[in-house]
Structure formats: structure tokens, C-alpha cells
Structure to design on (699 residues):
């Protein structure tokens, strides 16, 4: 051989190139709020859940022998930024799917992009029914939806035998959507209840004028349909005016804020006696995979996980399963796989509904709980469960303040 | 009764607005520029108060002066390093005063928001309350101890500022510089020091407003945007550069928003100030307390 070294170098280069090709990661796009005005708390939780499960998948050899890699974009909870983030992830980063969405207005903007490029979009936590009603085949919803919350809340409210209800809703697709739906469900389940909602600016800092009219004639129940930080400010101002929680008036959160890590730091007394709709509770039945994710989170963060950790984990697991079952990263094949599969995730097993409307590509029977916070700084595990999946409501467990 | 409730709530909110707006109008009065970083002076005060108290374990009443010092230092540094070129004759810069001020203060605003976002974090952080009383009845009114203290401190600060400007030597010098910078300079007044005093006072007022409201508004890095926008509206309504004008306009806006939110619509709460602004600009362009100025 005339040039043994040159031959060896060429062979090594070829081997390196081949190994590089084999190890090329599968890239998934994640669009979340990492800075205000979006809900950064939610964004961080979603990211934490994604990181845990991505590591779990990669530690087991990845997907189809390839590593799973996440590319994060900060959408700031702003629809235009969400749209731009999806566009960038799909066209420049060539992601196989987009996930992470946790604010409905942003999801509604981002799914237009995913639909245009026929890229799978796994909705992590956008509750607005409109995300489903669009009927886009690319969009899959393993998370919660407004109709589910509103119907569950209406059932609880009817059981409480209250006469008047007022909801404070943020002026977003999610907030207004949920407040209107709650009204519709209450009309069906308890038509005798008088209900109205007030739309508030999610960037607002002073909600006292909206609360003051309630002081003279407080309703029997106040519902929160706002996300932090506005939700915390509203709660404090409702409490400060003596409206709720009080001996007369329940305070019922429908936005799932009670398990946020910064909840108690921001509300204190205003959170005591709050009733909460929840999608996760440590006492809920949970698959082994879910317990595993919960343990890892608890070890890493020294605090209890919340629903977003599991929803985010399931979003990634769903994408990974779709790639495995399609044996491809092709969008159309992944969509087909997701439509046909029975997915088993951290919160249970389900099949996506094909019914048009708000149930389209949705986990319809998503489990939920109703619980009450009875002490300041109370960890989620010590809250009182009022309802667990598959069991009737126990309104007799609900406590009220003495005044 | 509701009307009275709304009136009192409007006055309290108006006092918060006044603390912010007075600092802004003072800067305009003396330098004839708008400080676009004024909301971030407020944000720095809110964070200083919250962090000094929560992270260092300092009692809230002692964290309050720390917030005031942070505002004073920020005001001093802004004036010393960013504003001096405006009036120290840096060649053609003087001719582009407005553009320079807009760019520099806007840049400072973005810098401070992003610094806090990266260093402290983007989460809302509720400051410790100065009072343990979460709600109390004063006659027919319901108020938190914190809001009551804030309102009282705001009144004390505004009165102290008025006394400082009217009675003290430095205050009179500031007034002289506001009336005629060149004339004051010829009369032997240190105009640079007067500007520095104004920026420091403005920083202290904004920072204290932020600190006092930290337990109420749960500060996050962008918390200054909301009061800053209100302040700009108030300053124009009251008359640019007029301190009494700003106080009256702030109280007026607070009450108007409070009533409008209930009797008209909460959805349009932030537009009431803008409607008032348009009316003032149409009927009295110099503002409620402003003076008509002719330039040749």
C-alpha cells in the first residue's frame, strides 16, 4: 500500500461521519414563557417536566437509537411571539414536533403555524376549547380543557347548594372561555343559581374597584379564573375586603394555581379555606411511571411536583411513542400513529378522541380532583380531598372560616 | 356607601400614582426631558425592599430606608453618568437633547428590567408587609394595614417634598434652575448639583412607592411599566413640570378609575385616564396646572 496513513485517515473520517449520522439527535421544539408577561412559573414547571423525562428516555438509549434533544424558545406568553417561536422551531431548527404550550392565546397562534407546516403539535397545558375546535389534525391534547373544568366545577358548585356565584376571569381566550362555559354548565346543572362573571386585565395590579361592589352583598361563592401573578393580587384584594373566603362566601379556584411553587409566598391568609380544582394530588391513583417522575422531581427540587410536571412529561413521552410506533420522524406518520395509539403516560392510559369539537384529539376523561387548603403554607399532600377520580363529592369535608 | 368606598379607594390609589408622577414631573421641570426609566426606579425600590427583608432577614421598617437609598443611588448614577452630556455642552449632542434622553433612558429601562430578570428571576415576589393586620375596619371602610400605612407614608413624603422645595436652600436652588437654568447658573447656583438632587429625590420617591406597594402588587421585573405609563398620563394632565398639578391629576385619575370601573366598565379602566388626557389636551393643552409657554 502506497499511502497507508492516508487510507487510514480516510477510513477513520468515514467511520466518524457514519457514527455522527447514527447519533444525530431527534430535535423537538419547546415553546414556553421564560420571561414576563407570560406565566414564567408555568413555563419553568413545564421545562422541569420535559427535562426529567427527556433524560429518562435518553438514559434508556433514546428513540430509535437516537438521542432526544429539546430546543427551547421563550414566547413570553405573547401570541405573536408564540407564532414566531413555532415558525423558527419548524423552519430553522427543523424540529419533528412542537410542544410545551401552556397559555391558550399562545397555543392558538402557534397551532396555525404547526398546521401550515403539517408538523405535530402536542399541547401541554392550553385549556381553551378553541384549540380543539379548530380541528387541526396536527394538534394533540393530552392536557386539560375548559369544558372539563367547567363541568366539574358546576357539579361541585351545585352540590354546595349556593345561590349566587361570581367569577373573576382574565381577559384571555382561556379566561373568558372558561367563565362563559361555567355559566352554561351552571344553567344546565343548577339553573336556580344566579351567575355572572367579570373580566379583568391579566396585567392589572389593582382589582379593588371590581371587588368593592361585592362587600355590600357578597355572593355565596367567588370563582377565580385568572393565572398568577394577577390571580394572587386578586385573591389578596378579595380577602382584604372581607369578601372571601368568609363564613358566607366560598372561594373556588378554577385555574389550578394552588399547587404552584410560589402560591403560598404570594397569598398567605387569602389562600386558607380555598377550594381548588386540581389535576394532580399526591393521594390520586397514579401509574408507576408517574410515581417515578414525581420521585425524581422531588429529589431534584426538594418540593412536591404539580400537574404541569406530569403534563409536560407526557407531552414528550407521547412524541417519543409516536416516533417509535411510526418508526419515523415524518410528521404525517407521527400524526397517524398518535391517532391510532393507546398512550400510557405518567397520569394513566388513554386514546385520543376523534370526535369533532372540543373533544377532537383530546384525552376526554382526564382525571381531576377537588380539594381544600385548610392551613397557611400547607403542602398539597396535606390538603383535604373533596373529590377523587371515580368517587362522589364529599362536601361535608369542606370547612369555612368562622367570620 | 359604595360611592364612598370607591372614593376612598380612588384617593389611596391616587396617592400611589402621585408618588410616582411627582418624581417624573420634577425631572421634566428641571431638565425638560422625560425619564423613560422612571418605572424601573420603582421596580428597583420594590426589589430592594423585598430582597433586603426576605433574603437578609432585615425587619421591613428597616428595609424601607434601604429601598430609598437604592432609589437615591440609582437617581444619582443616572444623572451623573447618563444625563450630564445633556447640559455640559458635548458639542452637537446638546442640539439632539430630546433624542438623546429618549434613547438613553429607554435603554436604561430595558437594561434594568433584564438585569433583574436574569439575576433575581422572573417570578413575582411578594414583599413583606409593614403591618401584620391583613384587614381592618375604619368606620365603614375595609382596608389592609399595609395600604393604610402606605397612604400615610405617601402623604408624609409629599408634604416633606413640598417643604423641602419651598423652605430649604437646595429646594429653592432647584426651583431657580427649573425656571431658568442659565440665569441660575449666572447667579452662582451649582446647576449640576441641582439636577443631581432632583434625580435623587425622584429616585427616592419612586423607589419608596415601589417598596410600599411590594406587599400589594407582588413585584416582577416588568412591574414598573404599569405605574410609569400612568405617571406619563398624570404628568401631562397635571401640566408638565407642575408638582401640584401632578398630585391633583393623580388623585383625579385614581378616583375616576375607581368610579369608572364600577359604573361604566372594568374592561375600560385603563382608558379613562387616556380619555381625560385627550380632553385636557383639547381644552387646556398646557395641562390643569401648566403654564402656557411661548418660545421664540
Amino acid at each position: 500500500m502506497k499511502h497507508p496513513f492516508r487510507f487510514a485517515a480516510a477510513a477513520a473520517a468515514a467511520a466518524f461521519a457514519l457514527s455522527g449520522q447514527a447519533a444525530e439527535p431527534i430535535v423537538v421544539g419547546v415553546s414556553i414563557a421564560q420571561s414576563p408577561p407570560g406565566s414564567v412559573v408555568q413555563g419553568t414547571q413545564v421545562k422541569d417536566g420535559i427535562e426529567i423525562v427527556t433524560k429518562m428516555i435518553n438514559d434508556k438509549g433514546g428513540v430509535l437509537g437516537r438521542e432526544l434533544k429539546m430546543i427551547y424558545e421563550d414566547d413570553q406568553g405573547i401570541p405573536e411571539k408564540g407564532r414566531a417561536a413555532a415558525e423558527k422551531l419548524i423552519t430553522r431548527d427543523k424540529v419533528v414536533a412542537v410542544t410545551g404550550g401552556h397559555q391558550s392565546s399562545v397555543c392558538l397562534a402557534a397551532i396555525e403555524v404547526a398546521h401550515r407546516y403539517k408538523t405535530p403539535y402536542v399541547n401541554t397545558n392550553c385549556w381553551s376549547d378553541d384549540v380543539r375546535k379548530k380541528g387541526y389534525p396536527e394538534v394533540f391534547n393530552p392536557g386539560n380543557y375548559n369544558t372539563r373544568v367547567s363541568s366539574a366545577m358546576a357539579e361541585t358548585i351545585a352540590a354546595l347548594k349556593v345561590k349566587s356565584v361570581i367569577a373573576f376571569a382574565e381577559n384571555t381566550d382561556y379566561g373568558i372561555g372558561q367563565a362563559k362555559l361555567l355559566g352554561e354548565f351552571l344553567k344546565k346543572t343548577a339553573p336556580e343559581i344566579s351567575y355572572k362573571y367579570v373580566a379583568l386585565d391579566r396585567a392589572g395590579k389593582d382589582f379593588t374597584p371590581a371587588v368593592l361592589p361585592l362587600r355590600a352583598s357578597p355572593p355565596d361563592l367567588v370563582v377565580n379564573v385568572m393565572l398568577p401573578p394577577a390571580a394572587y393580587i386578586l385573591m389578596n384584594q378579595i380577602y382584604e375586603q372581607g369578601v372571601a373566603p368568609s363564613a358566607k362566601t366560598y372561594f373556588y379556584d378554577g385555574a389550578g394555581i394552588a399547587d404552584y411553587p410560589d402560591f403560598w409566598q404570594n397569598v398567605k391568609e387569602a389562600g386558607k379555606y380555598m377550594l381548588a380544582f386540581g389535576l394532580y394530588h399526591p393521594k390520586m391513583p397514579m401509574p408507576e411511571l408517574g410515581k417515578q417522575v414525581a420521585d425524581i422531581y422531588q429529589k431534584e427540587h426538594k418540593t412536591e411536583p404539580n400537574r404541569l410536571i406530569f403534563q409536560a412529561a407526557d407531552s414528550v413521552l407521547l412524541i417519543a411513542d409516536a416516533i417509535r410506533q411510526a418508526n419515523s420522524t415524518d410528521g404525517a406518520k407521527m400524526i397517524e400513529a398518535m391517532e391510532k395509539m393507546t398512550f400510557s403516560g405518567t397520569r394513566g392510559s388513554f386514546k385520543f378522541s376523534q370526535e369533532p369539537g372540543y373533544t377532537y384529539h383530546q384525552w376526554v376523561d382526564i382525571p381531576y380532583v377537588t380539594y381544600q387548603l385548610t392551613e397557611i403554607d400547607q403542602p398539597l399532600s396535606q390538603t383535604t380531598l373533596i373529590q377523587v377520580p371515580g368517587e362522589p363529592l364529599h362536601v361535608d369535608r369542606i370547612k369555612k372560616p368562622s367570620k | 356607601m359604595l360611592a364612598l368606598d370607591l372614593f376612598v379607594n380612588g384617593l389611596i390609589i391616587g396617592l400611589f400614582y402621585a408618588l410616582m408622577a411627582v418624581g417624573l414631573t420634577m425631572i421634566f421641570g428641571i431638565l425638560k426631558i422625560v425619564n423613560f426609566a422612571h418605572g424601573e426606579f420603582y421596580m428597583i425600590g420594590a426589589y430592594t425592599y423585598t430582597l433586603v427583608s426576605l433574603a437578609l432577614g432585615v425587619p421591613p421598617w428597616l428595609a424601607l430606608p434601604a429601598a430609598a437609598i437604592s432609589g437615591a443611588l440609582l437617581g444619582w448614577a443616572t444623572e451623573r453618568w447618563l444625563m450630564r452630556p445633556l447640559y455640559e455642552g458635548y458639542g452637537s449632542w446638546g442640539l439632539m437633547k430630546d433624542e438623546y434622553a429618549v434613547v438613553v433612558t429607554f435603554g436604561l429601562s430595558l437594561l434594568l428590567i433584564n438585569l433583574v430578570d436574569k439575576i433575581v428571576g422572573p417570578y413575582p415576589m411578594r414583599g413583606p408587609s409593614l403591618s401584620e393586620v391583613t384587614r381592618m375596619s375604619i368606620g365603614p371602610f375595609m382596608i389592609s394595614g399595609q395600604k393604610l400605612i402606605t397612604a400615610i407614608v405617601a402623604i408624609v413624603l409629599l408634604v416633606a417634598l413640598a417643604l423641602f422645595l419651598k423652605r430649604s436652600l437646595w429646594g429653592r436652588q432647584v426651583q431657580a434652575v427649573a425656571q431658568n437654568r442659565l440665569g441660575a447658573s449666572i447667579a452662582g447656583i451649582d446647576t449640576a448639583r441641582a439636577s443631581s438632587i432632583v434625580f435623587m429625590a425622584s429616585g427616592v420617591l419612586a423607589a419608596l412607592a415601589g417598596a410600599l406597594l411590594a406587599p400589594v402588587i407582588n413585584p416582577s421585573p416588568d412591574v414598573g411599566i404599569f405605574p410609569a405609563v400612568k405617571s406619563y398620563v398624570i404628568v401631562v394632565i397635571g401640566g408638565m413640570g407642575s408638582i401640584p398639578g401632578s398630585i391633583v391629576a393623580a388623585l383625579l385619575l385614581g378616583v375616576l378609575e375607581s368610579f369608572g370601573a364600577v359604573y361604566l366598565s372594568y374592561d375600560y379602566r385603563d382608558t379613562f385616564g387616556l380619555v381625560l388626557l385627550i380632553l385636557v389636551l383639547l381644552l387646556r393643552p398646557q395641562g390643569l396646572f401648566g403654564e402656557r409657554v411661548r418660545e421664540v
